Each structure stands twice: as C-alpha cells, then as structure tokens.
Amino acid sequence: MKHTPLYLLLPLICLILSCAKKDDRGKGDCPTDLMCTMEYRTITISVTDTNGAPVALDEYRTVRLSDNREFDLRHDAGNWEDSGRRATGIYPVLTDSQQKEASTAGELFEFRGEKDNKVLVREQFRIRDNCCHVELLSGNTTVVAGSR
C-alpha cells in the first residue's frame, strides 16, 4: 500500500483550516453565513462653490454625533490622494475602514469642512453597517459651501 506524500497533504490541510476560520461578522445583528463582495466602499460628499467649481478644503473630518468621535480621513490619505480630493472637491465621509464604527441600525455622522479657519460645510448623514459595507441611509452628498 502506498502512502500519500506529505507535500500533497499539506495544501489540503491548509485549505481545510482556512475554511474553518472564525468570522466575527456573526456578532450583533449580522448573520454568520452572509456573503459579501470584496469591493471597498466609500461614502463621499461633493463640495462646490456657488459657481459649481470644486472647493479645496483645508481641513475635513467626520464626527459620530452620539459620542463626538472624530474620524480624520484627511490624515489617513497620502499627499497624492488628498490633492486629488481638493482638486475634485470630493471628500470621504466614511469608508469601509470605519464600517464597524456604525451600528447596523444606523447612526448620525456629520461631515465638517473648513477653509481659511472658517467652517464651510456641516452636513449630517445617517450611515449604517450593513454587515458587509458602510451604507448611506440619508444625507445630502452634494453641497454648495457656505450656502447656509
């Protein structure tokens, strides 16, 4: 009787162990057998001036209103990515990196944008963790800076 060489069994053992890996998506309201896409989602806001030109904000952040926790997405980006945001006026509100910071029922977040030490944008969003990605429930994703 022949024995199967160890180098053939090792990949099979690794495959079985990787399938048995625990997944923490079963916590809270999320089902344990949920199938999610591998895409990376970002909820964004477009900020323009009254002429429709993009506004290059000096500072921007998102605040979870329930506890005033700040998410400084500007400093999470590199210089190239941040300069692209300023050129287009499109800024992240929340990304899949902050997904677990929102409840599955939804929470209020506020995007705050400043230019020349003046707050130009304060826009509220209701965002939830849909067990796979961040999901926008409500909020205006296109704003004219300083129009309020």
Overview of the structural elements:
- This protein is α+β, with helices and mostly antiparallel strands and 148 residues long.
- Helices cover 16% and strands 34% of the residues.
- The chain has a single domain, classed as Immunoglobulin-like.
- Strand 2 (59-64) and strand 3 (69-71) form a beta hairpin.
- The chain has 2 helices and 8 strands, in the order αβββαβββββ.
- The radius of gyration is 21 Å and the shape is globular.
- The strands form 2 sheets. Strands 3-2-5-6-7 form a 5-stranded antiparallel sheet, with no helix packed on it.
- The protein has helices at residues 6-19, 79-88; strands at 42-48, 59-64, 69-71, 90-95, 107-115, 118-129, 134-138, 142-144.
